[in-house]
Each structure stands twice: as C-alpha cells, then as structure tokens.
Design goal:
Structural class: alpha/beta
Distance between the termini: 18 Å
Number of strands: 14
Shape: globular
Radius of gyration: 22 Å
Strand order of the largest sheet: 1-2-4-3-5-6-7-8
C-alpha cells in the first residue's frame, strides 16, 4: 500500500481545537447550513479574518469540496491565493480540514482573500480519493483537477479579483500545483511550490525517479512562472532530490526559481505549519509576488490573539513547582521543556497533564485534550518559555475556558500531544 506523508507527520502540529475568543473578533454571522459536515467544519473559525467554510462544486458538479475561506472586511474584490494541502498517512477522509492559518494570516494582512480546498475524498469533501500508485505524473494531474474547480468557483464570486490570483501548495499540494500550471488558467499569475512531492514506500516504487519524471512532464507544458522552496533538512525531499526535480523542470522548459533555505527546526518539511515559518518563506514570496504583479503591502490590521500574562509563580524550568503532577507527570514536563515553541502545558487537580507543540493554537489544543481526559477542569501552566499559572484561587475564568475546551473538537488520535492520567498513560506519541 502507498504511504504518503505531509508536514503533520513530521512535527507536532494539528488543527486548533478552540475558536478564537470573540473578544477580539470581527463577529460575522455565517449562513445557516443544513449540511452536518459543513456545521462540524465551522466549529472552529477565526472571525478576526472572517473565516468561513464553503462547499465548492467539483468534477461534474455532483460532489463538493470542503473549502476554508479567509478574507478582509468589505465586499472586495480581493486578490486571491489558493493554498493546497498535502496528504497524511491513513484514510484521507480522516484528515482534518487544513487551514494553513499562519500563511493565511499573512496574506489577509496584505489584502488577499484565501481559499484552502480539501480535495475529493479528503476530510468532509465529497467524492473519493483517487490514487495512481507510483505514477507520480498522474497523481499530480488528478489532484490538480480539484484546484481547477476551485479557481472556476472563485472567478464567479464578486469578492474575488479574477485577474489577480496565485496558487500555492505544500507537499502533495505542491506537486498538484505545479501540475496545474500545465493548463491555461485565466487570471492566475504564478505558482508557489513549498516542498512539493509525494512519497510512496510501497514495494517496487522508485518514487524519487518518478517525481523527477513528473516534474519534467509538467515543465514541458508549463505556462506560468513559479517559485520553489525546499529546506536543507526536509526529511522527504532533501536538497539532492529537490535539485533534481527542479533541474528536470527547467530543462524541459519550465520557469521556476528554487530557494534552498537552511535547516528549519527538526524538519523543514513542516515549515508552513510553524508560527515561525513566515521568517523563512515571506521575503522570497514577496519578491516573487512583486515580479508577477501581485500586491505585497500591508493593508489590513488583523488583531493579535489574546495572550496569557507571564506570572512570577515559578521559573519555567522549575519542574518541582508544577502542581498536581506525579513523578511520571514530572518526567513528562521535563520532556515538554525540550519541545520547540510555540508550546503549552496544561494540568488538572486530579493529576492529568497534556502538552502541545507547534502548529495552530497549542494552548487551545492542550486545554481541549486535557479537559477531555481529566475529571477536573484543566488550566494552562506554561506557554512557550514562561509560566502563566496563578495559585491565588481565582480559577473561574480558567474553568470557563476549560469547559469551553471540553465541548470543542478534540484532536484525539490525530494530535501530536502527550496525554496522561493517573491511572492511564497514553504517553508522548507523535502520530502526525
């Protein structure tokens, strides 16, 4: 069986379990939906960027794609970026809705609308996932069909500037994005490939050579300029393979600049999922956008999410100061201190604990998972490199937050967090 990987496999990242607090939100009511899938997808939405979920017709129109939309205030029309996701191991239908939150935020600040479609068979999109095995060329072309459907839908929307569009993709989405560039795409000015490719570890699949051949095919028919970004420590598509893929694309006639950026944290393949990834991709992306006539100036002020204040309860590395933990829990906190920021650690009076690392809203994920596993309300003890815990009895606000977390979607088996109860230790397993 084919095994494919995306950034969630490689770093501790998952979809945020809590919506942004409405205190800083631009409150926007969404149309009522009778579709259960759409309602479930709307459970976590960032109203500061007018996030909502639409159903985009695909193929012959008999199926729809669960598509996240972010956009500035106002009617538009806005320039558009379509961002395309990778593939996690396992059943595509179990893959959570991708948001590319950090990248989406950067583009909304620059006046863009953002669309993130889940392709057929993924998450709550209709249809079925179509896999061509080791035929990487066919895989890219097939996935590109749904991106084309998204662009067709976008052009018909009054809030989209159909003459100023760009398409980007990460991992499998990057492969599909470059495959899409073989078509005539009215209004699309360029393509951005973040660590594009597809890995298949099944028997007798020379997937690296297949990828090189696929990009040569796409280069021979390429119609748009492109930007390629691959990191030195990308565990899937390292510098040698990235160079081969890019060279084959150029030699066949494609236009694309390759940026090989330095090692990023534990694995560059997860760069877009990280809050710190913008420091890597933004400068080269802005340069490319200017080259193709797309805007780059900051024009929208997106409010920052609320942050918890630092307290003087204890130093972040004072393991003995963390309340309620058993010896096993203290070992877990010691491990948490080795994790990269952004990160958060939550505890409960019954001794439950959870840590979350990287990705979107680690504070919300830690609280949500801890509250789902613990008898008592959980509170955040540490965020990033400081302590937020207070021991003065003012728990009402924290308990309300924990109660909210308990009713939010819980990452569960798809979360790269560590969870423990006094009687049951799930441990520090990374499943994405």
């Amino acid at each position: 069986m084919s095994r494919t990987l995306s950034f969630r496999t490689l770093i501790s990242a998952s979809i945020a379990a809590l919506a942004m607090l409405p205190a800083v939100a631009h409150l926007q009511e969404l149309p009522a939906s009778t579709d259960a899938g759409a309602q479930a997808s709307s459970a976590r939405l960032d109203y500061r960027m007018n996030e909502h979920v639409v159903q985009v017709p695909a193929g012959d129109g008999s199926v729809t794609l669960e598509t996240t939309v972010f956009q500035p205030d106002g009617p538009g029309p806005f320039p558009l970026i379509v961002i395309n996701h990778g593939k996690d191991p396992g059943r595509p239908s179990l893959q959570p809705r991708d948001r590319f939150y950090h990248m989406a935020s950067a583009f909304v600040k620059r006046g863009y609308a953002v669309m993130v479609p889940m392709r057929q068979g993924f998450s709550k999109s209709g249809g079925r996932y179509r896999d061509h095995g080791c035929d990487m060329t066919a895989n890219g072309y097939t996935q590109a069909e749904d991106i084309r459907s998204t662009l067709d839908y976008a052009r018909a929307q009054p809030w989209v500037d159909g003459e100023r569009m760009v398409v980007a993709g990460q991992s499998y989405g990057g492969l599909a994005t470059i495959a899409l560039g073989t078509e005539d795409l009215p209004g699309v000015r360029g393509l951005i490939n973040f660590a594009g490719g597809l890995r298949d570890d099944s028997d007798r699949c020379a997937w690296r050579s297949q990828l090189v051949s696929a990009f040569a095919e796409y280069g021979s028919k390429a119609k748009l300029p492109s930007l390629w970004m691959y990191g030195q420590n990308d565990s899937l598509f390292g510098p040698e393979l990235a160079g081969r893929m890019h060279a084959s694309y150029l030699q066949a006639g494609g236009r694309g600049r390759l940026v090989e950026f330095p090692s990023f944290k534990r694995d560059a393949h997860g760069m877009l999922a990280s809050r710190d990834g913008e420091k890597v991709w933004l400068e080269d992306t802005e340069r490319f956008l200017k080259e193709i006539g797309m805007p780059t100036a900051l024009v929208v002020d997106v409010a920052s999410p609320p942050s918890l204040p630092r307290t003087d309860f204890a130093g972040v590395d004072d393991i003995e100061a963390v309340p309620f933990l058993s010896e096993h829990g203290r070992r877990a906190y010691r491990e948490y201190l080795t994790k990269m920021t952004p990160r958060a650690f939550a505890v409960s009076p019954s001794g439950g604990w959870t840590w979350a690392e990287e990705g979107e809203d680690p504070e919300g994920r830690a609280l949500a998972t801890c509250s789902a596993k613990s008898k008592d309300p959980c509170r955040l003890y540490s965020v990033d490199d400081y302590v937020v815990w207070t021991d003065d009895g003012r728990l009402e606000q924290a308990e309300k937050a924990a109660a909210t977390a308990a009713t939010a979607p819980v990452p569960g088996a798809t979360t790269a967090t560590a969870v423990s109860e006094p009687t049951t230790s799930v441990g520090s397993t990374t499943v994405r």
